Structure formats: structure tokens, C-alpha cells
Amino acid sequence: MTRFEKELSGALGAYWKKSAEEELQKVREELEQGLITIDENGVARNRIGRVLMSDMLEKLTYITNAVDAEATTKAREEEVAKTIEEYRRNARPATKEELDEMRAAFGRGKTVVNIITGQEYHL
Coil, helix or strand for 53? Predict the structure, then answer.
């Protein structure tokens, strides 16, 4: 059972149940206003066209059967992979100022690694 399911069921108390119900109402309103869209494949997107993250997707599944959680999750994974690949392709080495900031934060002689690109900076 997810945290949201526990909240909505009342298992965490009246406050959280009411909060979950209010969240569902907000999601319902966003869907009605077109701020959340669902395409012909059941993929849900937010107001800027990004595929919904799992927390919002879970709430949307309570509102409508038009959303396909599996298709949305797959589309999100593809979107994230594309974004990371673009970041890697466009990544540039750290500037002198950024290196100075890293030294100030971590100390001389340390190694800092950009976990997305794998680039190592020996300070």
C-alpha cells in the first residue's frame, strides 16, 4: 500500500484522509481545465507537456480510467533517458570558478564526480 493509499483510506488519521481527498480534487480540476492531458495511448502529461511522475499518476488513476499507468510509466522512463542523454551530450567541463567553489566546499585533494556524466574533478 502506498503512502497516498494509506492517507486516502484514513489509516493515517482524519487529517491525512482530508488532505488526500483535497489533493484528488485538485487533480480532478487540473484534468478538467486541461492542465493535465491524456493522449490516445493513455499517456498523461502535465501543463508543460512532461509525462507525469508516479505520485501524480497514482492520484490521476483515482480520477479517470482514461489514463494508462503502464504506458505513462514507460513514456516517463523514455523521457528521462532522453533528457539524461541530452545532458551528457551538452555537458561541458567545470569552469575555474566552479572548480574553486568545489574546492571550497569539499577541500583540496578530494575528487568530485558528476554522477550523470561520470566526469571526475580532482581538486
Answer: coil
Flag whether the pTM goes above 0.85.
no
The Cα–Cα gap between 12 and 97 comes to 48
Using alpha carbons, select from 54, 27, 76 the residue that is nearest to residue 35: 27
Residue range 9-55, pLDDT digits in tens: 999 999 999 999 999 999 999 999 999 999 999 999 999 999 999 99
Rg of the chain, C-alpha, whole Å: 21
End-to-end Cα separation, the chain, in angstroms: 45
CA dist., res. 62 & res. 10, Å (int): 16
- Residue 55 has phi, psi (to 5 degrees) of -65, -45
